[in-house]
Amino acid sequence: MIELIPLLTAILKICIGVRIVTFTSTHHKIKPIYSILAVAFVGYFLGSAASILINGQLVTISELIVTAILTVLILIAQGNLAELFRGINKIFGYKNEC
Q: 0.85 exceeded by the pTM?
């Protein structure tokens, strides 16, 4: 039987992957680098969730906490990875070079 911490981590990783996949870019410019990054994110998170659920991969409480924080950030950004990284750049004071 699967334990609670791995199950919650897998559910959160599935939520991240699905939210990124369902992002619609109606009012946003699509940049290829963010599309490639989104594919990598989806592949990692859905693959990791499958590994947890199928293979019983070990999960620590710290991974659950980091995944929960990232889930909240992705949901706030509405699945827009570019917006998420622009927000991080603003926090650290980097200027937009575009």
A: no
